[in-house]
Write a structure and sequence with these properties.
Blueprint: H1 7-21, H2 29-37, E1 58-61, E2 64-66, H3 69-78, E3 86-90, H4 96-103, E4 107-112, H5 115-124, E5 133-136, E6 149-154, H6 163-167, E7 169-179, E8 185-192, E9 198-206
Parallel strand pairs: 3-4, 3-6, 4-5, 6-7
Antiparallel strand pairs: 1-2, 7-8, 8-9
The structure holds S-adenosyl-L-homocysteine.
The site of S-adenosyl-L-homocysteine has 25 residues, from strand 2, helix 4 and strand 4.
Length: 217
Protein backbone atom coordinates (compact mmCIF):
# COMPACT_ATOMS: atom_id res chain seq x y z
CA UNK A 1 0.00 0.00 0.00
CA UNK A 2 2.59 2.48 1.12
CA UNK A 3 4.51 1.97 -2.11
CA UNK A 4 1.56 2.39 -4.43
CA UNK A 5 1.33 5.66 -6.24
CA UNK A 6 -2.24 6.54 -7.24
CA UNK A 7 -3.94 9.39 -9.13
CA UNK A 8 -5.00 10.70 -5.75
CA UNK A 9 -1.38 10.89 -4.58
CA UNK A 10 -0.38 12.58 -7.84
CA UNK A 11 -3.16 15.13 -7.41
CA UNK A 12 -1.99 15.85 -3.88
CA UNK A 13 1.54 16.34 -5.18
CA UNK A 14 0.29 18.86 -7.74
CA UNK A 15 -1.36 20.80 -4.92
CA UNK A 16 1.82 20.76 -2.87
CA UNK A 17 3.78 21.98 -5.91
CA UNK A 18 1.27 24.83 -6.39
CA UNK A 19 1.98 25.80 -2.77
CA UNK A 20 5.73 25.72 -3.33
CA UNK A 21 5.36 27.83 -6.47
CA UNK A 22 3.91 30.64 -4.37
CA UNK A 23 7.30 30.98 -2.70
CA UNK A 24 9.23 33.25 -5.02
CA UNK A 25 12.59 32.03 -3.72
CA UNK A 26 12.01 28.75 -5.59
CA UNK A 27 12.61 29.36 -9.30
CA UNK A 28 14.30 26.19 -10.55
CA UNK A 29 11.60 24.23 -12.39
CA UNK A 30 13.59 21.00 -12.04
CA UNK A 31 12.66 21.13 -8.34
CA UNK A 32 8.93 21.15 -9.12
CA UNK A 33 9.40 18.30 -11.59
CA UNK A 34 11.28 16.28 -8.97
CA UNK A 35 8.53 16.89 -6.38
CA UNK A 36 6.07 15.48 -8.89
CA UNK A 37 8.17 12.42 -9.72
CA UNK A 38 9.10 11.43 -6.14
CA UNK A 39 6.15 10.15 -4.08
CA UNK A 40 6.76 11.69 -0.65
CA UNK A 41 4.41 9.19 0.97
CA UNK A 42 6.92 6.39 0.30
CA UNK A 43 9.13 7.98 2.97
CA UNK A 44 6.58 8.26 5.75
CA UNK A 45 5.08 5.72 8.07
CA UNK A 46 1.63 4.48 7.22
CA UNK A 47 0.05 6.59 9.96
CA UNK A 48 1.08 9.77 8.15
CA UNK A 49 0.11 8.72 4.63
CA UNK A 50 -2.83 11.08 4.35
CA UNK A 51 -0.74 14.04 5.40
CA UNK A 52 2.28 13.22 3.27
CA UNK A 53 1.64 16.14 0.96
CA UNK A 54 1.05 18.89 3.47
CA UNK A 55 3.87 21.36 3.94
CA UNK A 56 5.00 19.87 7.24
CA UNK A 57 7.87 18.02 8.89
CA UNK A 58 7.13 14.54 10.32
CA UNK A 59 8.64 11.98 12.64
CA UNK A 60 10.50 9.29 10.72
CA UNK A 61 11.73 7.20 13.67
CA UNK A 62 14.77 7.40 15.96
CA UNK A 63 13.52 10.84 17.11
CA UNK A 64 14.27 12.37 13.69
CA UNK A 65 12.11 14.22 11.17
CA UNK A 66 11.69 14.42 7.40
CA UNK A 67 12.34 18.06 6.44
CA UNK A 68 9.49 20.42 5.46
CA UNK A 69 8.88 20.32 1.70
CA UNK A 70 9.66 24.03 1.49
CA UNK A 71 12.99 23.47 3.23
CA UNK A 72 13.87 20.65 0.84
CA UNK A 73 12.92 22.88 -2.10
CA UNK A 74 14.87 25.85 -0.70
CA UNK A 75 18.06 23.91 -0.01
CA UNK A 76 17.84 22.30 -3.47
CA UNK A 77 17.41 25.75 -5.04
CA UNK A 78 20.43 27.16 -3.20
CA UNK A 79 22.64 24.33 -4.43
CA UNK A 80 22.12 25.24 -8.12
CA UNK A 81 22.11 21.55 -9.04
CA UNK A 82 23.31 20.64 -12.50
CA UNK A 83 23.07 17.18 -14.08
CA UNK A 84 26.10 15.13 -13.08
CA UNK A 85 26.94 17.19 -9.98
CA UNK A 86 28.50 15.08 -7.23
CA UNK A 87 26.63 16.02 -4.06
CA UNK A 88 27.46 15.06 -0.48
CA UNK A 89 24.46 15.02 1.87
CA UNK A 90 24.85 14.97 5.66
CA UNK A 91 21.75 13.50 7.31
CA UNK A 92 20.02 11.05 4.96
CA UNK A 93 17.05 10.85 7.34
CA UNK A 94 14.03 9.63 5.38
CA UNK A 95 15.91 9.70 2.05
CA UNK A 96 13.41 12.12 0.49
CA UNK A 97 15.90 14.95 -0.09
CA UNK A 98 18.36 12.35 -1.42
CA UNK A 99 15.83 11.25 -4.05
CA UNK A 100 14.92 14.83 -5.02
CA UNK A 101 18.59 15.50 -5.75
CA UNK A 102 18.97 12.21 -7.65
CA UNK A 103 15.88 13.03 -9.73
CA UNK A 104 17.46 16.41 -10.56
CA UNK A 105 20.39 14.52 -12.04
CA UNK A 106 22.90 14.63 -9.19
CA UNK A 107 25.08 11.73 -8.12
CA UNK A 108 24.39 11.70 -4.38
CA UNK A 109 26.60 10.50 -1.53
CA UNK A 110 24.68 10.54 1.74
CA UNK A 111 25.66 9.89 5.36
CA UNK A 112 23.32 9.01 8.26
CA UNK A 113 24.42 8.42 11.84
CA UNK A 114 21.31 6.50 12.98
CA UNK A 115 21.53 2.83 12.05
CA UNK A 116 17.73 2.38 12.09
CA UNK A 117 17.21 5.13 9.52
CA UNK A 118 20.16 4.06 7.39
CA UNK A 119 18.69 0.55 7.09
CA UNK A 120 15.17 1.84 6.42
CA UNK A 121 16.31 4.11 3.58
CA UNK A 122 18.28 1.31 1.94
CA UNK A 123 14.99 -0.61 1.62
CA UNK A 124 13.03 2.40 0.35
CA UNK A 125 15.64 2.92 -2.39
CA UNK A 126 14.62 -0.45 -3.89
CA UNK A 127 11.50 1.36 -5.13
CA UNK A 128 13.56 3.83 -7.19
CA UNK A 129 15.98 3.46 -10.06
CA UNK A 130 18.52 5.74 -8.39
CA UNK A 131 21.75 4.51 -6.97
CA UNK A 132 22.97 6.96 -4.32
CA UNK A 133 25.90 5.91 -2.17
CA UNK A 134 24.47 5.56 1.34
CA UNK A 135 26.82 5.37 4.28
CA UNK A 136 26.26 4.73 7.98
CA UNK A 137 28.64 7.07 9.76
CA UNK A 138 29.41 10.46 11.25
CA UNK A 139 28.80 13.34 8.87
CA UNK A 140 31.47 15.47 10.56
CA UNK A 141 33.99 13.22 8.84
CA UNK A 142 32.39 13.59 5.41
CA UNK A 143 33.35 11.02 2.76
CA UNK A 144 37.06 11.56 2.11
CA UNK A 145 37.27 8.63 -0.33
CA UNK A 146 34.80 10.24 -2.73
CA UNK A 147 35.84 13.89 -2.17
CA UNK A 148 35.98 16.50 -3.54
CA UNK A 149 32.31 17.27 -4.16
CA UNK A 150 30.66 19.91 -6.36
CA UNK A 151 28.00 20.57 -3.73
CA UNK A 152 27.43 19.73 -0.04
CA UNK A 153 24.05 19.83 1.70
CA UNK A 154 23.74 19.53 5.47
CA UNK A 155 20.21 18.68 6.63
CA UNK A 156 20.78 18.90 10.39
CA UNK A 157 21.63 21.94 12.52
CA UNK A 158 25.43 22.25 12.82
CA UNK A 159 26.97 24.14 15.77
CA UNK A 160 29.51 25.55 13.32
CA UNK A 161 30.66 24.92 9.76
CA UNK A 162 32.85 21.79 9.93
CA UNK A 163 36.28 22.43 8.36
CA UNK A 164 36.44 18.80 7.17
CA UNK A 165 33.44 19.49 4.93
CA UNK A 166 34.93 22.72 3.55
CA UNK A 167 38.05 20.68 2.73
CA UNK A 168 35.91 18.17 0.80
CA UNK A 169 34.26 20.88 -1.33
CA UNK A 170 35.72 21.69 -4.76
CA UNK A 171 36.92 25.21 -5.49
CA UNK A 172 33.86 26.83 -7.06
CA UNK A 173 31.63 24.45 -5.11
CA UNK A 174 28.58 25.37 -3.00
CA UNK A 175 27.65 24.21 0.50
CA UNK A 176 24.24 24.84 2.08
CA UNK A 177 24.20 24.38 5.84
CA UNK A 178 21.95 25.46 8.74
CA UNK A 179 24.26 26.79 11.47
CA UNK A 180 23.43 27.42 15.11
CA UNK A 181 23.04 25.83 18.49
CA UNK A 182 19.69 25.37 20.21
CA UNK A 183 16.43 24.95 18.33
CA UNK A 184 17.06 27.43 15.50
CA UNK A 185 19.70 27.85 12.88
CA UNK A 186 20.68 30.40 10.25
CA UNK A 187 20.77 28.95 6.75
CA UNK A 188 24.17 29.68 5.25
CA UNK A 189 25.33 29.28 1.68
CA UNK A 190 29.07 29.00 1.36
CA UNK A 191 30.83 29.32 -1.97
CA UNK A 192 34.43 28.13 -1.95
CA UNK A 193 36.07 30.84 -4.07
CA UNK A 194 39.64 29.61 -3.71
CA UNK A 195 41.37 27.06 -1.45
CA UNK A 196 41.43 29.68 1.31
CA UNK A 197 38.62 32.15 0.48
CA UNK A 198 34.94 31.59 1.25
CA UNK A 199 31.95 33.67 0.28
CA UNK A 200 29.24 33.27 2.95
CA UNK A 201 25.62 34.38 2.51
CA UNK A 202 22.82 34.05 5.08
CA UNK A 203 19.18 33.19 4.39
CA UNK A 204 17.08 33.49 7.54
CA UNK A 205 16.19 31.06 10.30
CA UNK A 206 15.17 27.42 10.01
CA UNK A 207 14.54 24.60 12.49
CA UNK A 208 16.44 21.35 12.06
CA UNK A 209 17.26 18.50 14.42
CA UNK A 210 20.81 18.91 15.73
CA UNK A 211 23.90 17.55 14.00
CA UNK A 212 25.36 15.16 16.58
CA UNK A 213 28.82 13.67 16.71
CA UNK A 214 29.68 9.99 16.31
CA UNK A 215 27.25 7.27 15.32
CA UNK A 216 24.23 6.00 17.24
CA UNK A 217 23.27 2.34 17.13
N1 LIG B 1 17.22 15.12 4.58
C1 LIG B 1 16.45 14.47 5.60
C2 LIG B 1 16.46 15.26 6.89
C3 LIG B 1 16.38 14.37 8.08
S1 LIG B 1 16.62 15.15 9.64
C4 LIG B 1 15.01 14.25 5.13
O1 LIG B 1 14.52 15.01 4.29
O2 LIG B 1 14.38 13.32 5.60
C5 LIG B 1 18.38 15.16 9.81
C6 LIG B 1 19.09 13.84 9.89
O3 LIG B 1 20.46 14.10 10.20
C7 LIG B 1 18.59 12.87 10.96
O4 LIG B 1 18.22 11.67 10.37
C8 LIG B 1 19.80 12.68 11.88
O5 LIG B 1 19.92 11.37 12.42
C9 LIG B 1 20.96 13.01 10.96
N2 LIG B 1 22.21 13.40 11.60
C10 LIG B 1 22.39 14.14 12.72
N3 LIG B 1 23.71 14.28 12.99
C11 LIG B 1 24.38 13.63 11.99
C12 LIG B 1 25.77 13.38 11.71
N4 LIG B 1 26.74 13.84 12.49
N5 LIG B 1 26.08 12.65 10.61
C13 LIG B 1 25.10 12.16 9.80
N6 LIG B 1 23.78 12.35 10.01
C14 LIG B 1 23.42 13.06 11.09
Amino acid sequence: MQFQDTFKHKGMRRQLIDELKKDERITNSAIFDAFYEIPRHFFLDRAFLEQAYSNKAFQIGAGQTISHPITVAFQSQMLEIKRGDRVLEIGTGSGFQTCILCQMGAKVYSIERQKELFLKVKKIMDHFRFNPKLQFGDGYKGMPIDAPFDKIIVTCGAPEVPQTLIDQLKVGGIMIIPVGEGGEQIMKRIIKKTETELDVQEFGTFKFVPMLERTAK
